[in-house]
Amino acid sequence: MIERQLQPLLHELVGVVLAPTSALGDATGQIRPTGVQGVFHADARVLARAELRVDDRELEGLTRGDDGPHGARFVGLARWLGDPAPDPTVRVDRLRRATRNGLTEELRIVSTATVGVRATVSVDLGCDLAPIEMVKSGGAAAPLEAKTGQPDVLSWAADGITVTVTAPGAHVLASGERATAPRLTWPVELPPGGGDTVLRWQLSVEDPRAVVVGPAGEPEWSRPEVTADDRRLVRLLDRSLDDLRGLRLAETGAPGDVFLGAGVPWFLTLFGRDSLWAARMMLPLGTDLAAGTLRVLARRQGTRVDPATGESPGKILHELRGHEVALPANGLRLPPAYYGTVDATMLWVNLLHDAWRWGLPAEQIEPLLPHLEAALRWLGEHADPDGDGLVEYVDTTGHGLSNQGWKDSGDAVRYHDGSLATAPIVLAEVQGYAHEAAINGAALLDAFGRPGGDRWREHAADLARRFRDSFWVDGRYGPQPALALDRDKRPVDSLTSNIGHLLGTGLLTVDEEAQVARLLTTDTLAAGFGLRTMSTDDAGFSPLSYHCGSIWTHDTAIVLAGLARAGHRDAALGLAEGLLSAAEAFDYRMPELHGGDDRSLVNRPVPYPAACRPQAWAAAGAVLLLQAATGLYPNVPGGTVQLTPLAGVELGAVAVNGLRVAGTPVTVTVWLLYTSDAADD
């Protein structure tokens, strides 16, 4: 039997991150030479092994927990040492922290024994410098030989990357059979009556090829003080902001423009769609992150037609890497700068518009206006190759992404009967983004005295008419927008979460939005811990499919926010409860996605075993949920603020101090007023 090469599982691993560095190990703290365990820096695994032993024996794991936003603490026991009594008297705390260019570990050995303790502490290391795509596809690289030159120091080097381990006071074994599995050892002696000692080692990485770096300084956004009757909201926000702090990145050569890397471990780099959505969700905490994200992507905006990279004039980048990414099992081969995304360009326009409404200063917007005009030209000249007025995509290379919306797996676009649609594909939510971008772009052009506003309003109106004529089909629960149109403009008639992204884009009438809200609250979509990506009625549904039945955190948050702002309170509250219940089960570090199993069958969310965690737009979803709870919608250029809170009787009271509008701190309090026989907001 031929053994399959499978993507390694992540869901039980413990991660620490301070981008561009991340580390994944098991629940006892060991980093073993298997699967996706290791320390990663940018696009390479810079350490494939870090196994701690005492007297050449593994500790018995006791517990683990966070230690600050970028660290984890593991507690283990050495019960063969110390007093021969039922209570353990020798424990080891292993504190791991990610740094911008590596990792540190502190090993604290503590004895409360009445007898003296002598032991040898060792850490076995290994380095393979495997590229991230090799690890993701389940492949393996041969371990490299370590070099020694100074006491307490080990190093590895290949492909321009240099990895160095420094271990003060350690004896280094790195010759013979230990050349590819070097060992650090420390003798430890603790006196009778108790004592402790601390050992340290650190990893540092030099990678001149890296296209991303860790920015200096503190996060650009505010950290609001939140009190809420539902404490899950507070805990989710706190953990999410810690995770987002660790995902901050800048492009090499432009350290001042900060954006969010998409997620650990596979996507810790610039992703147009992910970085834009995350920055948009974070606007209630300030506009600096949005400004940095907009500028980074504007600098790499397409200028020419290049089928090999998917580039075209005005188009916004999908993904930036330091080298070509090849995944043979999927037939993918993506260039370092890849433009295979149909929606990032419209999302760039919409982020610029929303940042303007939240108070991004005019002097920061004006340099981006030529890029706005280029993005709109792309929408009018390149996004619709067949000229039918709808935005579509197709991979013409045969080795790019076959699907180029946010559901970009190869099997994501399915008919109700489970069969796959044939490209070119016209996605429903993309038409919503395009409509919104045309309206928003026109508003910006008008406000800054640039021509073309009327043209884009006409474009939006025409798009809305074409959508209404082409996308609505009959379904089990009445009329529904199709997921997409296929090559022959035939509706792909499955019921999916994509339709929720149409809310608030202006593409739908009020009555159509109400029907979409009804569809989103059916048990086929909403009976899990969040919003399913595909309904259980569709033949392609599977609760552990990446895009056809699973539940994505950011997807649920976006749709929840759209429902709340459109006034569909009960529907929004149902999704909020699912999201908060999932957060509680995942210790408030929300994964990229989880299983779409029914809550009546499984009383906690089922992990999706290869999900990124932490992940930028999943973590930023907590801020979007907080905004929906407070109902704060500013329009700084118009001089107005709308308050329509979701918080109330069901969600409870919420008070937030430290939101930002036009750089000014804002406090929002939603309280409950009780009468003798009723409770009202």
Give your account of this protein's structure.
The protein is an alpha+beta fold. The protein folds into two domains: 14-206, Glycoside hydrolase, family 65, N-terminal domain (Beta-galactosidase, Chain A, domain 5, Distorted Sandwich); 212-670, Alpha/alpha barrel (Glycosyltransferase), CATH 1.50.10.10. The chain is 25% helix and 26% strand. It has 14 helices and 36 strands. The strands form twelve sheets. Strands 6-7-8-9-15-12-11 form a seven-stranded antiparallel β-sheet, with no helix packed on it. A hairpin with a 2-residue loop joins strand 11 and strand 12. The longest helix has 20 residues, at 428-447. It is globular. The model is unreliable at 675-681 (pLDDT under 50).
What would you say about this model in short?
With 681 residues, the protein is α+β, with helices and mostly antiparallel strands. This is Amylo-alpha-1,6-glucosidase.
Outline the secondary-structure elements.
Elements: E1 14-18, E2 21-25, E3 38-41, E4 44-47, E5 49-54, E6 60-66, E7 71-77, E8 90-99, E9 102-111, E10 117-126, H1 132-136, E11 153-158, E12 161-166, E13 171-173, E14 183-190, E15 195-206, E16 212-213, E17 225-228, H2 231-246, E18 248-251, E19 254-260, H3 272-281, H4 288-299, E20 319-320, E21 325-327, E22 332-334, E23 337-338, H5 344-357, H6 362-365, H7 369-381, E24 426-427, H8 428-447, H9 453-470, E25 472-475, E26 478-481, E27 484-485, E28 491-492, H10 510-520, H11 523-526, E29 551-552, H12 553-565, H13 569-585, E30 593-594, H14 616-630, E31 632-635, E32 640-643, E33 654-661, E34 664-670, E35 673-674, E36 679-680
Antiparallel strand pairs: 1-2, 2-3, 3-4, 5-10, 6-7, 7-8, 8-9, 9-15, 10-14, 11-12, 12-15, 13-14, 16-18, 17-33, 18-19, 20-23, 21-22, 24-27, 25-26, 27-28, 29-30, 31-32, 33-34, 35-36
